[in-house]
UniProtKB/TrEMBL annotation:
Quaternary assembly: Part of the signal recognition particle protein translocation system, which is composed of SRP and FtsY.
Role noted for this protein: Involved in targeting and insertion of nascent membrane proteins into the cytoplasmic membrane. Acts as a receptor for the complex formed by the signal recognition particle (SRP) and the ribosome-nascent chain (RNC).
Protein name: Signal recognition particle receptor FtsY
Swiss-Prot/TrEMBL keywords: Cell membrane, Cytoplasm, GTP-binding, Hydrolase, Membrane, Nucleotide-binding, Receptor, Transmembrane, Transmembrane helix
Cited SUPFAM superfamilies: Domain of the SRP/SRP receptor G-proteins, P-loop containing nucleoside triphosphate hydrolases
Keyword NAD belongs to the record: no
C-alpha cells in the first residue's frame, strides 16, 4: 500500500517537472525577443537619432545599415550643457530721450504744429482760443490742464501785444513746461539710502508693458554700471517669467523665479533676499497684470507689497501705463495708487500715439511724476523722462 502511494506520488512529481519544462520555458524566452523590436520601432518612427545607445550597444559599434543610428555621434553627448548666453553691455541711459526724440516728434508733432498755427493767427478771438483748448483736450492733456494753459497764454499774449513766430513758440514752450513741472523729482530710486538693495515694484494692468519695462530697466541699470536682481512675481503667466529670464540673462542679472501659480509674495520676498545676499544695488519685482476693477487681485497686490516690506522698505512703485489707452489709464492709476501708493509713472508706447498730453494729465490727477517713457519695442527704448526734450519734440518736430 505504502509502495503504491510512493509510486503514485513519484509519478505526479515527474509529470509536474516534465510539464513545467515545456510549459514555462517558451514564455520566459519571449521578452528579450520583443525588446529589441520595440527599440527599433521607436528609432524608425522618430526618424531621428533620438534613441540613446543602450548599455548592450557599444558606442564604438554603431549598427550597420541604420542611417538614424549612424547619425548619433557619441562624441556629442545628449546631456551637453547649453552654451552660456553672451552677456551684453547696454549703453548708458544719459541723453537717451534726446536720441529717441525723433520717435516722439513723429507722434506728437501734430499737436505742436496745430497749436503754433492757431497761436500765430492774426486774430486771437474767443473761437481761436476755444480751438486751442480743444486741440489740447484731444491730445489727452485733460480739461483742467487745457483750461489752465489757455488762461495763462491769453494773459501773456495780452501783455505782449504783437506776436512774432518766435514769441509764440517761446510762450507755448514755457506754458507747457510749467504744466509738466520741470522741477519734479523724476529720478528712479535705484539706490537705497542705507546699505541694502533698493526695491522697485513694477505694477499695472495687463499688457501695458510691465515685464518689458522691468527687463529694460535692468538694462538701464547695468548700462549705468549698477547691478540688479529681477524677481519674477508674475506667477500667473509662465511666458512672462521666461520673458523676464531672457531679459536678465542678456545683461547677466539673476532672475528669481518659482513655478507657475506660486505665491507672488514669496517670489518677491526671495528676490529681495537674493539681492541682499548678492550685495546688488537694486531689485526689480515684476508683478502680474491685473484689472484695477478686480478687487481680489488688487488685494493680492497689496499683500505682495506687505510681504516685501517684512524684509525691506519698498523704494519705488512704478505704475506702467499704456499711453494709447488715454482716460482709461487714468482711472487705473487712481485705483493702483490707493492700493500700493505709486511713486512714479512709466508711460509706455508713447511712440505709437499722438496723445502725449497724457503726461500732463496723469501727473496733475495723481500728483506723481512720469519718470520713464517707452519709445519703442527695442531693448534700449526706455528713457528717463526729460520735460524739455518732450516739449521741444512737440514744438519743433524732428
Ligand atoms: N511700441 C511700443 N511697444 C511697447 C512698449 N513697451 C512695451 N511694448 C510692447 O507691449 C507688449 C506688451 O508688453 P509686456 O511687457 O509683455 O506687457 P505686460 O504688462 O508685462 O503684460 P502682462 O504680463 O500680460 O500684463 C509687448 O509687445 C511689448 O513689446 C513701447 O514703449 N512702445
Amino acid at each position: 500500500m505504502d509502495y503504491t502511494i510512493f509510486a503514485v506520488a513519484t509519478f505526479i512529481v515527474a509529470l509536474l517537472v516534465f510539464g513545467g519544462v515545456f510549459l514555462i520555458r517558451p514564455r520566459r524566452s519571449e521578452p528579450p525577443q520583443q525588446q529589441p523590436r520595440q527599440e527599433e520601432q521607436a528609432t524608425a518612427d522618430s526618424g531621428t537619432a533620438v534613441a540613446e545607445p543602450t548599455e548592450t550597444e557599444s558606442a564604438e559599434e554603431p549598427a550597420e545599415g541604420s542611417g538614424a543610428v549612424a547619425e548619433a555621434e557619441p562624441a556629442t553627448p545628449a546631456t551637453a550643457e547649453p552654451a552660456a548666453p553672451e552677456v551684453e553691455t547696454p549703453p548708458p541711459s544719459a541723453g537717451r530721450m534726446v536720441r529717441l526724440r525723433s520717435r516722439l516728434a513723429r507722434s506728437q508733432n501734430v499737436l505742436g504744429r496745430g497749436l503754433l498755427n492757431l497761436l500765430a493767427s492774426d486774430k486771437l478771438d474767443d473761437d481761436t482760443w476755444e480751438e486751442i483748448e480743444d486741440t489740447l483736450v484731444t491730445a489727452d492733456v485733460g480739461v483742467e490742464s487745457a483750461t489752465a494753459i489757455v488762461e495763462n497764454l491769453r494773459t501773456k499774449v495780452k501783455v505782449l501785444g504783437s506776436r512774432t513766430q518766435d514769441d509764440v513758440r517761446q510762450l507755448l514752450r514755457e506754458e507747457l513746461l510749467t504744466q509738466i513741472d520741470p522741477n519734479a523729482d523724476r529720478a528712479v530710486r535705484t539706490r537705497a539710502e542705507t546699505d541694502r538693495p533698493a526695491v522697485i515694484m513694477v505694477v499695472g494692468v495687463n499688457g501695458t508693458g510691465k515685464t518689458t519695462t522691468a527687463g529694460k530697466l535692468a538694462r538701464v541699470l547695468v548700462g549705468d554700471g549698477r547691478s540688479a536682481v529681477l524677481g519674477a512675481a508674475d506667477t500667473f503667466r509662465a511666458a512672462a517669467v521666461d520673458q523676464l529670464e531672457t531679459w536678465g540673462n542678456r545683461v547677466g542679472a539673476p532672475v528669481v523665479r518659482k513655478d507657475e501659480g506660486a505665491d507672488p509674495g514669496s517670489v518677491a520676498f526671495d528676490a529681495v533676499a537674493r539681492a541682499t545676499e548678492d550685495g546688488a544695488d537694486t531689485v526689480i519685482i515684476d508683478t502680474a497684470g491685473r484689472l484695477h476693477t478686480k478687487t481680489g487681485l488688487m488685494d493680492e497686490l497689496g499683500k505682495v507689497k506687505r510681504v516685501v516690506e517684512k524684509k525691506s522698505d519698498v523704494d519705488e512703485v512704478l505704475l506702467v501705463l499704456d499711453a494709447t489707452t488715454g482716460q482709461n489709464g487714468l482711472r487705473q492709476a487712481q485705483v493702483f495708487s490707493e492700493v500700493v501708493n505709486i511713486t512714479g509713472i512709466v508711460l509706455t508706447k508713447l511712440d505709437g500715439t499722438a496723445k502725449g498730453g497724457i503726461v500732463l494729465q496723469v501727473q496733475r490727477e495723481l500728483g506723481v511724476p512720469v519718470k520713464l517713457v517707452g519709445l519703442g519695442e527695442g531693448a534700449d527704448d526706455l528713457a528717463p523722462f526729460d520735460p524739455e526734450t518732450f516739449v521741444d519734440a512737440i514744438l519743433d518736430g524732428e
